[in-house]
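**User:** My hope is that you can spare some time for a protein that puzzles me. As I understand it, each token names a local backbone shape. I would be glad if you read both lines and explained how they fit together. The protein I mean follows directly.
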Amino acid sequence: MPYRRLYFFALLCSAASLPAQSYPFRNPALPVEVRISDLLSRMTLDEKISALSTDPSVPRLGVVGTEHVEGLHGLALGGPGGWEGRGKPVIPTTQFPQARGLGQTWDPDLIEKAAAVEAYETRYAAGRYHRGGLLQD
């Protein structure tokens, strides 16, 4: 469950500036689970499937993702694969074991700690480099 919660929390945080209609999932005063439930209830099946890719954007709802993010074992922004395209710097981030390795620890608290590090680095990358899962207009 920690991955699901982290993934959808990052998706929530990646919402662009408010559209004409203010959705409850954009309200940081609401509990995370309420915000996640609201966002998921508004997404179509195709949008949910698409958000599982490396770009979790949901343009119809004003949720802006990033060009290429892979976060099952850390926020990967760039690297030898050139995911961020030519001319963009690689942002160094902490990498954890692959999801299978994390799951085999059978330690939910450890996985939550890894998710907290990834969330922190995502916020940092968004603030310093204007990249990551927390982009705002």
